[in-house]
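Re: the multi-chain job from yesterday

Posting the exact lines I submitted so nobody has to dig through the queue logs.
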Amino acid sequence: MHERADRLAGNVVTVDEDLAREFEARLVESSTLAFRVAFSVLRQREDAEDVAQEAFAKAYRSFRQLRERERFRAWLVRMTWRMAIDRHRANRRRLARDGVEAGLQSRLARESGDVVLENERAEQLWQAIDTLPEKLRLVIVLAGIQGHDIREVATLLDVPDGTVKSRLFLARKQLRERLSWMATNASTR
Amino acid sequence: MDGHKRVDEVSDPSLDREIESLLAVEPSPEFLARVRARVAEEPAPGRWRTWMLVVPGAAVVAFALLIVWPSREQAPDHHAPALPASQQAAEVAQQASPPAASSEASRVRSRSTPGTALPPAAARDRAIDIDLPDVVIAENEVRTFAALVATIRQRRFDVAVPAAPDLDAPLEMKELRPAEPIEIEPIVKLAALQAEGERP
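And the result, structure tokens for all chains:
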């Protein structure tokens, strides 16, 4: 009886160990992706790392329920994106509540941080990306991360290749228009 | 104008390259270690959800048991058959009466169930077997009656019934006082009108 219980307990431990090992492998291969997805929304390294970390913790909690493990990256990307958007909104609300002074301090802190917006062009590009609708924005970000091709982006978003193509086309078009408008405004100032 | 030229020159590949360079940010070296530490704080995968279901479920069941169990113990047994009134009265009388009277009560009970002395459960079963209509008496009435019986047995008050009236005896007629005549005065106005010859 005891032997059987021990054997069963041993099996459980083995299953948990297998899961933990598998999760570790996923963590190593997807950590940068999750961080960059969060960074594309938050534009702050610390916040992005926090969000990515929480996304991994959440993923770990539900890892056993994930039936198709090969879709882990897609699942993680969507979760991280959503959490980063939530964090961004919360940050904005907090800034609005704390007033302009706090906002200025935050901006100064950001500019003195590790990630420095190198030039005005980069800032313009970020602003242009921010104005895109969410679906187009996610596509252009994922395509810009680690040189993902259309198929990889389609897999991550669980949409057909054609959808990714059309969204990419629209996103680039809108970005060009937005950048053009910004450049015109800058030159007339 | 300068800006226009620059934007026109932006092709898809160059735009993509720019975006790639924007997103080519590496996490800090300790990021992975922090994530591992954070994940290690979590319970084993999948069990967390199970516990989230099991713990509140167990709490609800325990709460329900705490509520239901005592109320079941206090509730009267509605399924038990009602005892015949005489038996109930005898049993209650035995409970209500002091030890001296209890022997009398037991005699009453033994008279009501002649033959063998049955234990209460057997007596109840026997009560079910009797095919006669039974009178269900309210518990408080039974108790009051038993108390009355016990009091009588202790001879604490006289229960002599007053003598019944003799129906054949002649009725006694009392003399009535004569009524005084009532005088009613005529209505003045009506008399006056009649005198004038007008109709009222």
